[in-house]
Amino acid sequence: MTIEFHKVLFAPKEITHETKGVKLEASLVKNSKHIIKLDGKLTGTARRVCDRCGDDMDIVFDETLKLFLHNGIYTQKNNDIDTIEVLDGKIDFDKLIEDEIITAQSDFAVCGDCLNKTKG
Ligand SMILES: [Zn+2]
């Protein structure tokens, strides 16, 4: 699903989109000429492998997601809130969710079995 950047206005726009088992519910609101603020929640389950034993395991998403979407290349650095560049005038929610899954998959994590072994 994509939404054209210029169609998001100062009145909040509610969206719900699910891809790869993870659902994003968010409100989009224009913040300035080139910035949209996304305020939402990610829920669902994705798959990854355990960093210790290599077995498949679930990543459970239940978290808030706050982002700025910048129309065009973003050069200013804002460390308070993540800013994502929208390069073709369209916000791609499949890619946005997939990027969040990839980020979660690249964090260190061990499965329940390995956690129990650690506890001994
Ligand atoms: Zn494991």
List the helices and strands and how they pair.
Elements: E1 2-4, E2 13-19, E3 22-32, E4 35-49, E5 56-71, E6 82-86, E7 90-92, H1 93-106, H2 112-119
Parallel strand pairs: 5-6
Antiparallel strand pairs: 1-7, 2-3, 3-4, 4-5
Bound molecules: zinc ion (ZN).
Q: Major sheet: size, sense and barrel closure? A: 5 strands, mixed
Biggest sheet: strands side by side, in what order? Answer: 2-3-4-5-6
**Overall mean pLDDT:** 93
Number of domains: 1
Shape annotation: elongated
Radius of gyration: 17 Å
Poorly predicted residue ranges: none
Share of residues in strands: over 45%
Helix proportion: 10-25%
Bound molecules: zinc ion
Measure the end-to-end span: 46 Å
Question: Which structural class should the secondary elements be placed in?
Answer: alpha+beta
What would you note in describing this structure?
The protein is of the alpha+beta class. The chain has one domain (2-119). The protein contains two helices and seven strands; from the N terminus they run βββββββαα. The strands form two sheets. It has a five-stranded mixed β-sheet with strand order 2-3-4-5-6, covered by helices on one side. Strands 1-7 form a two-stranded antiparallel sheet. The site of zinc ion has 8 residues, from helix 2.
